[in-house]
Amino acid sequence: xxDAQMEEGDNTREIExxxxxxxxxxxxxxxxxxxxxxxxxxxxxxxxPVSLVDDxxxxxxxxxxxxxxxxxxxxxxxxxxxxxxVKIWSTDSWFCISSVCCEKRVSAVAVSNDGLFVCFADKFxxxxxxxxxxxxxxxxxADKKAAPMLAHYCSIITSLEFSPDGRFIVSADRDYKIRVxxxxxxxxxxxxxxxxxxxGHSEYVSCLDFIHSPDxxxxxxxxxxxxxxxxxxxxxxxxxxxTCEIGSKAExxxxxxIEEDPxxxxxxxxxxxxxxSVALAVQSLKGIMLLNCNLSAKTLSMAKVVLVEGETLxxxxxxxxxxxxLLWMVTGISKLQGFDHSSLARVRAVSFPEDDGRDxxxxxxxxxxxxxxxxxxxxxxxxxxxxxxxFLAASEALKxxxxxxxxxxxxxxxxxxxxxxxRNDRKLKH
Amino acid sequence: MIEKExxxxxxxxxxxxxxxxxxxRAHSNPLSDSHFPVPLSPSQFDYxxxxxQLVPAASDDDNPKRIQFADIGCGFGxxxxxxxxxxxxxxxxGMEIRDKVSEYVKERISALRTTNPGQYQNISVVRTNSMKYxxxxxxxxxxTKMFFLFPDPHFKEKNHRRRVISPHLLDEYAYTLAVxxxxxxxxxxxxxxxxxxxxxxxxxxxEALMExxxxxxxVVKLLTSAxxxxxxxxxxxxxxxxxVYRRIAPPL
Lengths: 430, 252
What we know:
Chain A: InterPro entries: Trm82 (IPR028884), WD40/YVTN_repeat-like_dom_sf (IPR015943), WD40_repeat_CS (IPR019775), WD40_repeat_dom_sf (IPR036322), WD40_rpt (IPR001680). Chain A: This is tRNA (guanine-N(7)-)-methyltransferase non-catalytic subunit. The structure holds 2 protein chains of 2 kinds. The relative contact order of chain A is 0.12. By secondary structure, chain A is mainly beta. Chain A contains 4 helices and 31 strands. The two termini of chain A are 32 Å apart. Chain B has a 7-stranded mixed sheet with strand order 3-2-1-4-5-7-6, with helices on both faces. Chain B contains 9 helices and 7 strands. By secondary structure, chain B is α/β, with parallel strands linked by helices. Chain B has a single domain, classed as Vaccinia Virus protein VP39 (Rossmann fold), CATH 3.40.50.150. The A-B interface holds A 126, 148, 150-151, 153-155, 175-177, 179, 181, 190-194, 196-197, 199-203, 226, 238, 407-408, 410-413, 416 and B 23, 25-29, 31-35, 40-42, 131-133, 135-136, 140, 162, 167-172, 174-175, 203-205, 250.
């Protein structure tokens, strides 16, 4: 094991790639894409790009954005990431109404269903909460102070979700755990009562979403993981209701020979507009996988794979407005090394049409069929045309980055000794 | 490491449970000593391996025996050994992250079981990081006693968050303890003692035991006398600081 190989690990930390993210307003009034530190929003009502306004001490984001979302009402938008800032925007004026500082880089955000609290998780495992009570819209506020609400000990939190009935907040981490915590009356005092843990994944949990319907208001939790499974849970009891093995699906073997042993880690998931499907973004899959979730039988099953033909599109993030029948996806990256363009993004959408009351097959929309059309794509993708080879390289870089972030490294004895060589706290042997 | 040819009551000398129920880390280096198996969930914890006499394998019991006492950071096992005969019908476990120390405790229990037939069948040890994996071993409200004896003080302020008793970790211990269950802490470091007491006092799901309750609790005396650490402190005439709290239902 040469010195060069040992040093390599330290250098790559400086240039960390980040996946592009997408979020859709619940009523599809706007669509937002984050590529690196750049936040791009398109207004679908006014059919024009949005200019964000931020006059806080640290305006806009200065490093990769790692989480974006709209709140349930669509009045608020939250963005946060590696610059240790959580920014809360009003979606009426797209004015940054609050910037919250975090000690560590932020890895996930969630907004309570009533829009009163914003929660964000840092890479050390602490979930913080900040209150928006008593704030008038469009009013600039002094920088808010967040209170620690709960923590996963020394673990990166990958996803945060409030349950649809507002009773619980669910947090998932890289140590295979999902924690369900009771939301207290005053979250600022801490959320101490753990309802349950949802245990069963054998690799990092990467994404969470709830699926619910008027008949099933409490909903069921769905989780995706690096162990190539998607699982269905009852969050009141923590019981595992069903597991869907993504890795064993034959459709995935047609991956154009990207690698000998394709990785089927689930990177993102999203409940579909038809209320019964779940869309998955899977490493190595050029498209999305759809699962059927039966809320009464409490089962998950493979439905189909929607491949994106003619281009290399392995989605990095999925979003939907649920009400408008469209599933949006983005693939993209920032800080990619070795190509003319270090950041790139490509947006596509899948529609879930209803045909005489029955659900017809999902349809991948062409660029001219997307709401907002070319103008939206220019705004969200940037105006440069990117070749397939670059998207392929991006996908590989993201895969490596995710592995090194979320899968704990194991070192041999010699390497561990070598890594300890600069320690200055060795105890004297007696 | 001494080559083990231990007695037959502990069939597998390493005490490692059957691999198929335990997660194997991807790309793990088997030579790395920080690699230890952790049950994916409490139902995957193999009781018959740890308590072969009391919990026979593949028993379809409706009321299976479950661990009720846990010694977090059990060190060389002194407390477990003392508790074993005091509560012979309760299952107990020690959790220890240090490899060699947990091996020692395994061998100690094994030897005790051999020389005292029928006894010490209710205690065992597992090598694990209890700050991360307690929910993997115990169901909600499963434990009735949790012990934190002479934990690492982590003197530097920036390391305070690594302390085994902390506001956030108490949420997990509250989850693991049944209502009415008791958490016992003791240390010879005054600042740590105040810290632990403060964390417990401020947590809405714990309340302090009254003086009388402490006096009537057999276990409290063991905190100072049962462990090697406690005995060392007594020998040196040091002071100890304990905080014993009961898990209560959260206020409405």
